[in-house]
Amino acid sequence: MFDYTEKIREIARRLLQEKKVDGIIGFKKGTIPMMNQPVFITSPDRVELLHWDSWCGVNLANYLPKREGRIGIVAKGCDTRSIVVLSQENQVQRDQLYIIGVPCRGMLDRRKVWEVVGSTDVKGIEEGNGKVRVWGNGFDLKLERSELLQNNCVICVHRNPVVFDELVADEVEEQSVDRYGDIRNIEAMSSDEKWNLFQEIFSRCIRCYACRNACPFCYCPQCFVDESRPQWVGKTIDRTDTLTFHLLRAFHMAGRCTDCGACERACPVGIPVRLLTKKLEKDVKELYGYEAGVQLDERPPLDTYKPDDPEDFIK
Amino acid sequence: MKRLVLTKDELTAWVRRMTEGVRVFAPVAVGDYDEFRLVDSDQADLIRWSYQNTRLSPKGLFHPQAERMFKFSTSKEDPEWNILKEVPKDFSPRVIVGMRPCDAAALKIMDVNFDTPEYKDPWWVRRREATTIVGLACTSPSSTCFCTSVNSGPFDTKGLDVLLVPLGDGRFLLDVVSERGEELCQQFGPGGKEADSEAIATYEGLKKKAEAALVPIGDLSPLKERDMLEFFNSPIWDEVQFACINCGVCTYLCPTCWCFDIQDEVYESEGCRLRLWDSCMFPLFTLHGSGHNPRAEKLQRVRQRFMHKLKYYVDKYGQGVACVGCGRCVQFCPVNIDIREVIRLMLVQCECAV
Amino acid sequence: MAEWEPKILAFLCNWCSYGAADLAGVSRLKQPPNIRIIRIPCSGRMNPKFILQALRKGADGVWVSGCHPGDCHYIEGNYYARRKFALFKNLLEYVGIEPERLHFSWISSAEATKFAAVAKDVVESVKKVGPSSRLIKREAEVE
Amino acid sequence: MNNPYRPYPVVIDDIIVETDDKNLRTYHLKFLNPEDERAFQFLPGQFAEISVPGQGEIPIGIASSPTEKGFLKFTINKVGKVTTYLHNARPGEVIGVRGPLGKPYPWDKLEGSNVVIIGGGFAFTTLRSSLVYMLHPDNRSLFGDITVVYGARNPGLLLYKDELFEWEKRDDVTLHITVDATDDPNWKYNVGFVPAITKEKAPSSENAYAIVCGPPIMIKFTLPVLTDLGFPPDRIITSLEMRMKCGIGMCGRCNIGTEYVCKDGPVFTFEQLSRLPNEY
């Protein structure tokens, strides 16, 4: 299933040889198990570096804004949706891109592996037939692939690229799932319960901004956290500051987030930051019937309106 | 100095006795990872004696992520209006139990920055003076560790006062390695018995085995020998920097990254001057008031981080690299930028230059 | 001890609700004294940061008011604002900010009576949940 | 333990608007405690962190000379949060000063030499300090010829105008005042960019050091002029600016390669800079 690597290399080689693109953004095999590194390949003799497996959770669309020239990019379903959003926001030009679409069965989450094996020191991992074999000091286990999916992949409804120039394989079957079960559970809580829950969740935040920087949509020249006149949010790890940061960050994702999971994946302390972005995603869908990054010619939901938008909360 | 052998119960009892006299910090599980926390006598048996690395390094015990430096009144009616006063803090004696040798070696690296002939950082120096460190040897280093390549090792005692070595049979060898460690053992008798030659042989064997398990990166002396500008102007940085997203994971998890910011906050009529961790990965770190930024580009910031650790520090202080090989950045960089690879690239470039 | 009185920050559109507040005053309509007003050029100028900043600085409630849909001085500013408000209000409630603290209204410059009535309503609503304790920026609980 | 982060409390004694655009003001600060003033021993070229509680700290070159007693003088451009606050402050307000910080100009070498001072715009602050210091009757005989080229975009932007015009009249210092342009028909000094005027006046490099402070573009074009005049790089001295926080070489942001501008600088010779990364 994940024999996409050869196909990706083949396409990349062809594109570079025919000078259709100036460079290809893809992955190279990581230096440690369960990690791969984004890479920019500009010469056909370097395409052998390109690699694909279940650990390509980084959203490569993050490397597109402000990049000059014609770019080839290897993109999963969620990545292509991000490209659509970036294109709506004039951060990329579709005709400058060659999208090598990857139908995706979901990326895996190393935190789930660590949890099962009881260690963060995994020496090796391999995959086949829906199973994952993982080994290290004192363990060698065979796990179900489906149990190890990133949380966002479990509920993904756009596994196939929504825009592409070429696919590396046949499309995969889309799933039909309830995306918002956890959000509804929180919505049903009392204010106190909600408050306590989120205080706890964000208490571990170390303000490293990995969530922000892993996101393709955080491209502002100056982030609100760096504004000093006035200062909107303190820079400490005080809970008020941390929550303020996460609220504003999440709100900036309203109607844009494609739930690629890059933020949550990047967090070094395991904060489920998608709980905020998914709430906004749910509201945008329910209130305005909009799903981010699906149609190139749509306007983002906060850049448009309908005269009869819901307003029962307004006196 | 003396070497003892303690059973796990004796060790726990020793730590418990310490908690009754001084503040004790030790690694405990917090959620799905380990963290150094203040432990009381009831928590002594929660200490994780077999943890790999704490997610965040224990540097925060000496250089907290956020620390109040001064307080002041902003009310013009106050006779002490705008006069900064140091925030009172607890600098009473404390013991950190279970610190890994790499993290302790990192403190030595940071001493050079905070405790200088010209200036002494008062918070750092007082915390260092107040602290005795009981280390925990790494008998099974992680695959991301490379301490032996960077002047440290799984049994390195240079930042420690006492080294504990899990002997594999439930017992621990206690090796007193400094005066301070001696004093600790006098104040709180560890119990146990004198280590016999068999225990010492086990200890030596474990040490050799652990050291052998670590993959060497190579001879780092070219980092010292070659000129700073050769590294600085090298083409390798373009490749190294591509994947970087300029987050602060590497710097915040690193046990030797000390950079900080100073910020003032005002709460109605009083205010506080705070010191906060900062990161050379953030563009704001070097942004001038004029708008000019000497490290405006990602490449410059990535290069700064590695050059600082692997070249500037080496040249400035002559004490080797500012990295202890704990592997946290290797493990947690969201885009797999691996400092071991960067070192290799820098070394390879040197070989080519020859 | 005197009864606790909430502090409420109102962001009022220059072209309508601000005028209504003025008219309510000139008309000597009875209204609660708890409201501090910031005049904004249009409800579309409202940035969620302003609401957060108000809460961080200790406002017990926040009230944003603009022109009725279709009456925006800038044609459509309030239509855009409406979407932002809906999403942001929901988000704040979702993390545990009491819904009673956030209020939105459309009040034209002629609706002085409505202004006074909504002001009363807002104050009563905030009073129900008591002094704000969430999201207030205080001295950091750090070393 | 002495806490190097604790500022000395000072009171703003006087505020002078220096330039026509009102963006530069000079502050006279007086120590609240006499022992603090005694502790604050500095030489021209050093800087201090001006500390406004609640706003933050800013590194500013000391514009007064150690020969001027009873106050410190800083000229501050309105740029960010702290400086804007200061521009709205009034005499009588209590703030703080932390320092002196950094290395001064190399006075041990400058003594016995001819000194050429080249300044542009509002970078004249520590140069003023140096000039006042050298011209002091106790010190003047320690130095050879003193030549100054100082320019601004227009007459209204020159700093310390009263002093400048006084110095211009003296015979123990050669002062060339210049502006990029002026429509003042009574302007009796030079018109032209600093590098051009330096070239025209051609101060001798014999037994001389040049201290150059100004905007990067001025420095860029002045360096070749000085080189042509025979100044070697180790005799051309400059003072660098950087974003700073601690001012004592600990917070890590102001480095150029191995050197912290706050502690190892801000004064460098071009010979030193040539061996450092070009990242400033």
Short description:
The complex is a heterotetramer of chains A (315), B (354), C (143) and D (280). Chain C has 143 residues and is α/β, with parallel strands linked by helices. Chain C has helices spanning 17-26, 48-56, 77-94, 112-129; strands spanning 8-13, 35-40, 61-66, 102-106.
List keywords for this structure.
heterotetramer; C: 143 residues; alpha/beta; four-stranded parallel sheet; 4 helices; D: 280 residues; Elongation Factor Tu (Ef-tu), domain 3; Rossmann fold; Dihydroorotate dehydrogenase B (pyrk subunit), domain 3; 3 domains; globular
Give the N-terminus to C-terminus distance of chain C in angstroms: 36 Å
Topology order of chain C in helix (H) and strand (E) letters? EHEHEHEH
User: Main beta sheet of chain D: strand number and arrangement?
Assistant: 7 strands, mixed
Give the terminus-to-terminus CA distance of chain D.
34 Å
Helix/strand structural class of chain C: alpha/beta
Q: How much helix is in the residues of chain D?
A: 10-25%
Can you tell me the CATH superfamily of the largest domain in chain D? Answer: Nucleotide-binding domain of ferredoxin-NADP reductase (FNR) module
Strand order of the largest sheet of chain D: 10-9-8-7-11-12-15
Oligomer: heterotetramer
Largest chain-chain contact? Answer: B-D, 50 and 45 residues
Shape of chain C: globular
Mean pLDDT of chain C: 94
SS strand fraction of chain C: 15-25%
What CATH architecture of the largest domain in chain D would you give? 3-Layer(aba) Sandwich
Q: How many domains would you count in the coordinates of chain D?
A: 3
Chain-averaged pLDDT of chain D: 94
Structural class of chain D: alpha/beta
What is the CATH topology of the largest domain in chain D? Rossmann fold
Topology, please?
The complex is a heterotetramer of chains A (315), B (354), C (143) and D (280).
Chain A: H1 4-17, E1 23-29, E2 36-41, E3 71-75, H2 77-88, E4 97-101, H3 110-117, E5 122-128, E6 131-136, E7 139-144, H4 151-154, E8 166-167, H5 181-187, H6 191-202, H7 210-213, H8 239-251, H9 262-266, H10 274-288
Parallel strand pairs in A: 1-3, 3-4, 4-8
Antiparallel strand pairs in A: 1-2, 5-6, 6-7
Helix pairs in contact in A: 8-10
Chain B: E1 3-7, H1 8-21, E2 23-30, E3 33-39, E4 66-73, E5 85-86, E6 94-99, H2 101-114, H3 122-130, E7 131-136, E8 162-166, E9 171-176, H4 179-187, E10 193-194, H5 197-213, H6 221-225, H7 228-232, H8 236-241, H9 249-253, E11 260-267, E12 270-277, H10 298-317, H11 328-332, H12 339-353
Parallel strand pairs in B: 2-6, 6-7, 7-8
Antiparallel strand pairs in B: 1-9, 1-10, 2-3, 4-5, 4-12, 8-9, 11-12
Chain C: E1 8-13, H1 17-26, E2 35-40, H2 48-56, E3 61-66, H3 77-94, E4 102-106, H4 112-129
Parallel strand pairs in C: 1-2, 1-3, 3-4
Protein name (chain C): Hydrogenase iron-sulfur subunit
GO molecular function (chain C): iron-sulfur cluster binding; metal ion binding; oxidoreductase activity
Domain F420-non-reducing hydrogenase iron-sulfur subunit D (chain C): 8-130
